[in-house]
Specification:
The complex is a heterodimer of chains A (421) and B (614).
Chain A lengths: L11 E6 L2 E11 L2 E6 L4 E5 L3 E8 L24 E7 L5 E5 L4 E5 L3 H4 L5 E7 L10 H17 L2 E5 L5 H11 E3 L4 E4 L12 H11 L7 E6 L7 E5 L3 E3 L8 E3 L6 E4 L2 E4 L11 E2 L7 E5 L6 H8 L4 E6 L10 H9 L3 E6 L12 H9 L2 E2 L5 H14 L5 H6 L20
Parallel strand pairs in A: 6-9, 6-10, 10-12, 12-13, 20-21, 21-22, 22-23
Antiparallel strand pairs in A: 1-2, 1-5, 2-3, 3-4, 7-8, 11-19, 13-14, 14-17, 15-16, 17-18
Helix pairs in contact in A: 2-3, 3-8, 6-7
Chain B lengths: L13 E9 L17 E8 L12 H8 L3 E7 L17 H13 L3 E2 L2 E2 L2 E4 L9 E15 L2 E12 L3 E6 L2 E5 L6 E7 L6 H17 L10 E8 L5 E6 L4 H23 L3 H5 L5 E2 L10 H8 L3 E7 L13 H10 L5 E4 L10 H10 L7 E7 L1 H19 L5 E5 L5 E5 L7 E3 L6 E2 L2 H7 L7 H12 L3 H9 L3 H10 L3 H19 L5 H14 L3 H14 L3 H5 L9 H14 L9 H8 L6 H13 L1
Parallel strand pairs in B: 3-10, 13-18
Antiparallel strand pairs in B: 1-11, 1-12, 2-3, 4-7, 5-21, 6-7, 6-20, 7-8, 8-11, 9-10, 12-13, 14-15, 15-17, 16-17, 18-19
The chains are: A alpha/beta (421), B alpha+beta (614).
Chain lengths: 421, 614
């Protein structure tokens, strides 16, 4: 008598259900449910007492050679002067593939679908990590910076594939850590996984790679700028934010328009930018003892003090122009006396904090709060880690105020607000 | 029924049906409505990638679509949202659609699954923005009774409808998203259907149960049939058979098409190897640099090349009419967006001269029994195109006829794509497995519709309709509509006559339709104001002729029924001033001529009788 426990994933089996015999592929057996794939492609998840295993016809999946999916680009330019871009994958893979026999989705090393779209650029992929972006830590950013520097030492530009959830955090961290860079560093991700034919991964990658061949000497994030596949927008990392949970144009530059647009093979850089330099200079330290507090009505003093304790710096996301309730001001003064740094940003995300306008703001200034103008809260968090990690305490305030990488906008663009096109 | 040359194909006929029924009121994976105004909100463009979803052998149909390299443009309609734009994961499955599918399954004697598992069926031609269609089997192993025995139902599935193609050409397809996501119940039968009439009967029987299970959408394109037919040479899937009456036509067309292919195959079997080895293709653009053919010239100017190849043994077999090999190839190249295909059976012609033809035959070494193809197309697709042409020729000559075709309005069919293999489905992990308990299934059995004959008797009895009228209403899937309107306007015989006769006539006259929501509103008003039949009919006329909505129409002066005094006045005038004498036979007609407004003929007759006595 054959038992479900003996059947290997991918085996062809005969089973009976509801009085009829079927041939199918065994997928899974778990608890009281057996999952099989019919010859018409559909999966059936049947209760164990409803399905009877008749025969195992063949064991396991045959090893199918993964062939190149597209014919190699015939008109690829064989040219020593071709640009060379490194592709670094942090999520374990750049691409996915689907085995239709079993329906399983798995990582793929085959980047033929990307290299075919960038025929005039040589691309070299490398997997540097396998981590979900929500699990990323400052240690990982330091590790990433090292890998990016190494890749820039051997190529003209670097594209980093990253999960979209924390991409702005990572890209901003890299941006601060690189005082100078020999090529563009472009982060890229996808909102629709790459096993889907509709995935934005392909167009995003195409745009990112082309951006990485320019002289843009900063860190950018390349993603769709609208719902169409016509163009890709690049945002300055330290002004970027994921503003929608699922849209492919979720990433926006806040307060300014995108710094670069890629369309049909060419890139247009639209804002003044730091050009690439002659060496890669990295300050690879980050001090993680910084917290971020999202103020809300009824936030208690006890909770506030707990989030401030044992931190060297605190980023507050205040309301409006940068306010919190009066009840917290004594705690802020106390924290400042203990040598902690309290920095103010706004939950509004758009616009600049200004503590001069209302009495609350002025009291916060007296308490020692440092307003960060229109710096994004998440960017402020990362910047504080960078400054604390690499500079003496006395220089902290001065450096936080200074516009190091374009994280502060001197002149906000009026037409760009709330993600409107 | 077409007899055709009897080569025994008919005796091997096997027919199966796949019928898709749209379910109304809400899309399957979002809360957008199925009904829509046709306003366009905006457009966006996408390119689909087939490649990343493959491992090892590439699925033939997907490869085919990818090689056609299409750009898709999508029109965002008012009834579409981020889910249809592929900008948001699917929401929960629509409860009404699921319920309708479950009830239909039980009505068709199927075994309902306890675990509903949604899959992604890869579709890369652009008709689904996500690159796949979400589909799940709801039930299996049922049957439907027909006069020729039981026809087995292999499965009942619940899936999303695709986007609606608006236009197609110049390397771009334009789709509207209004239809994308509308729930479809798909009923698939085993090939137990015996002939064309049986197919129609089976479709009607199945259609009755699905429509009676609730929430069926009542528009013209709400039911789509695919007919699967085999004469022993492979299964041909014919998609998009819009009307039941077309089913016999497409089957006949297919029979005669296959008979003619068998004829060709028998004559040309010795050439199969030639096509398998992929014949030579020559670039003959230079030969036509100053041709008089408009099509060739415009192609050359657009940067395309002219190619030619010799089709051995095909001389005389390409032209339309008896032998349709030419159409087979033309259908295929048209799928690549190529419009310039010529063959030797029709040349010289189309601006190509005898002289040009002679030179070409010489260059192509054409023998008498051969045909020559001339095709204008871009270099980029030329290699793939000819590989497809030769592989299709080899397939047809070997009578390997398995493929997917599309039904045209006249009953003919044209090649759509190679039949997809099984390798195109994988789990839709964004939708958790739905559990259907045995308890739920038991409860749903109460809602299973009665068999058609019982329903007909019930309608006839409960509404006082003749058996004939009840039968028409039920078998043309208008029971739900009839009952709804009769509940609003409590004159069932008038309702029956209206929906079976008056409305179709008016709609045909004005070339427009009244949609269900407006009909509902019209009958609500009619019920509230207790309109007579004539007023109701007049209202419908005004709605169609003037494009008015029911409320606007109800305020029209022209709609107000003639009162007693008005009738007296008109009839008096007619009696006195008519040229020829008025009598009981002509008075009603004359009153109608005098006024556009509706009136009660019985009342008018009474008035006439009382006045004419005077």
């Amino acid at each position: 008598m054959v038992d479900w426990a003996d059947v290997v994933f991918g085996s062809t089996i005969m089973f009976s259900y509801s009085g009829t015999e079927y041939e199918g592929i065994f997928i899974h057996s778990d608890g009281d449910i057996v999952t099989v794939k019919l010859s018409n492609g559909y999966n059936l998840a049947l209760q164990k007492d409803q399905i009877k295993l008749v025969k195992i016809m063949s064991k396991g999946t045959e090893h199918v050679e993964s062939t190149a999916l597209l014919k190699p680009a015939k008109d690829r330019i064989e040219n020593a002067g071709k640009k060379h871009v490194s592709l670094l994958a942090t999520g374990g893979t750049i691409a996915s593939k689907v085995d239709y026999k079993t329906g399983a989705v798995s990582p793929s090393e085959d980047i033929g679908f990307i290299s075919d779209r960038v025929k005039d650029v040589e691309v070299t992929p490398e997997t540097i990590d396998n981590i979900l972006s929500e699990n990323i830590t400052p240690e990982k950013w330091i590790y990433m910076a090292g890998k990016i520097r190494d890749s820039l030492n051997r190529s003209d530009g670097c594209v980093v594939f990253h999960g979209t959830d924390t991409m702005s955090y990572s890209a901003s961290a890299i941006s601060f850590m690189f005082l100078d860079q020999t090529g563009p560093i472009v982060f890229v991700g996808s909102q629709r996984s790459s096993d889907r034919p509709s995935s934005d991964a392909f167009m995003n990658a195409e745009g990112a790679i082309h951006m990485a061949t320019t002289d843009f000497g900063e860190v950018g994030i390349a993603m769709h700028g609208n719902l169409s596949d016509e163009s890709i927008s690049m945002h300055r990392a330290v002004r970027s934010r994921k503003m929608h949970t699922s849209r492919r144009d979720a990433f926006r530059s806040i307060g300014e328009s995108e710094v670069g647009i890629y369309s049909q093979g060419s890139v247009r850089l639209t804002h003044p930018y730091r050009k690439t330099g002659v060496k890669n200079e990295v300050k690879p330290k980050l001090d993680p003892s910084v917290s971020m507090i999202y103020f809300y009505p009824s936030l208690s003093v006890e909770d506030f003090e707990r989030m401030v304790a044992r931190k060297k710096a605190v980023i507050i996301m205040g309301t409006g122009l940068g306010h919190v309730s009066h009840s917290l001001i004594p705690s802020i003064s106390q924290a400042m006396k203990e040598g902690k740094k309290i920095l103010m940003t706004s939950q509004c995300l758009y616009g600049s904090v200004n503590l001069n306008v209302y009495s609350t703001g002025r009291e916060l200034i007296r308490a020692g709060v440092l307003p960060l103008r229109n710096m994004l809260p998440e960017v402020a968090l990362v910047k504080a880690m960078y400054v604390l990690g690499n500079y003496e305490e006395e220089k902290f305030e001065e450096m936080m105020r200074e516009n190091l990488r374009g994280e502060i906008i001197e002149r906000e663009e009026a037409l760009v607000f709330g993600g409107a096109d | 029924m077409l007899e055709g040359k009897d080569k025994g194909l008919r005796s091997r006929i096997k027919i199966g049906l796949e019928i898709h029924f749209q379910v109304s009121d809400g899309k399957l994976f979002c809360r957008c409505p199925t009904e829509t105004a046709s306003n366009e909100l905006f457009r966006f463009e996408r390119r689909m990638i087939a490649t990343a979803s493959e491992m090892g052998s590439m699925d033939r149909a997907a490869k085919y679509e990818m090689e056609r390299n299409l750009l898709s443009e999508y029109v965002a309609s008012e009834n579409s949202c981020l889910v249809e734009y592929d900008e948001e994961p699917p929401h929960e499955v629509d409860g009404k659609a699921l319920k309708a599918a479950l009830i239909a399954s039980l009505a068709l004697n199927c075994k309902v699954l306890n675990n509903i598992f949604f899959m992604r069926k890869v579709v890369v031609d652009g008709s689904n923005t996500s690159g796949f269609q979400r589909t799940a089997i709801i039930a299996m192993n049922g049957w439907v009774a027909t006069s020729r025995g039981k026809v087995r139902i292999s499965s009942v599935s619940l899936e999303e409808d695709s986007a609606r193609l608006l236009e197609n050409g110049n390397g771009k397809s334009v789709y509207s998203l209004d239809r994308l996501g509308i729930p479809l119940i798909e009923i698939a039968t085993e090939p137990d259907i015996i002939d064309e009439e049986h197919a129609v009967e089976t479709a009607k029987a199945i259609g009755y149960f699905v429509q009676a299970s609730g929430f069926s959408r009542m528009t013209v394109d709400a039911i789509r049939q695919d007919v699967n037919v085999s004469f022993g040479y492979g299964r041909v899937e014919i998609k998009g058979v819009q009307k039941l009456s077309l089913i016999p036509e497409v089957i006949s067309y297919e029979l005669s098409r296959q008979e003619s292919l068998l004829d060709i195959s028998e004559r040309s079997s010795q050439y199969i190897g030639f096509y398998r080895d992929k014949p030579k293709v020559l670039d003959v653009t230079d030969m036509f640099s100053d041709t008089g053919s408009k099509i060739l010239l415009s192609n050359i100017r657009a940067g395309n090349r002219i190619y030619s190849t010799t089709l051995r043994g095909m001389g005389g077999l390409l032209k339309n009419g008896k032998y349709r090999m030419g159409k087979e190839l033309a259908d295929l190249v048209r799928r690549y967006g190529v419009k310039g295909l010529f063959h030797s059976d029709e040349l010289p012609g189309y601006g190509i001269t005898q002289e040009e033809v002679d030179r070409l035959w010489l260059k192509m070494k054409k023998a008498k029994e051969d045909a020559v193809l001339l095709i204008a197309c871009p270099i980029s697709i030329s290699e793939v195109l000819f590989i497809e042409i030769f592989s299709r020729m080899a397939k047809l000559l070997q009578m390997d006829l398995t493929e997917t075709r599309f039904a045209a309005d006249d009953g003919s069919t044209f090649f759509l794509r190679p039949m997809p293999g099984r390798e195109r489905m994988y789990p839709e992990t964004d939708v958790p497995i739905l559990k259907i308990s045995d308890e739920t299934i038991r409860t749903m059995r109460n809602d299973v519709p009665l068999p058609m004959e019982e329903t007909i008797s019930m309608i006839s009895r409960d509404y006082g309709l003749s058996a004939q009228d009840a039968s028409v209403i039920v078998s043309t899937f208008r029971k739900v509509q009839f009952e709804e309107l009769s509940s609003l306007y409590r004159h069932p015989k008038i309702v029956a006559r209206f929906i079976m006769q008056t409305l179709p006539e008016l709609e045909k006259k004005y070339g427009r339709k009244i949609e269900q929501p407006e009909l509902t509103r019209l009958f609500t008003i009619a019920g509230e104001r207790n309109w007579i039949r004539e007023v109701l009919e007049k209202a419908a006329d005004l709605m169609l002729s003037g494009g008015l909505d029911p409320d606007a129409v109800s305020r029209e002066k022209e709609l107000s029924q003639l009162g007693e005094d008005e009738l007296k006045e008109i009839i008096m005038r007619l009696i006195v001033s008519s040229e020829s004498e008025t009598n009981e036979r002509n008075i009603i007609a004359r009153v109608k001529k005098e006024t556009g407004r509706p009136f009660d003929p019985a009342q008018a007759m009474k008035v006439y009788r009382s006045l004419s006595k005077v």
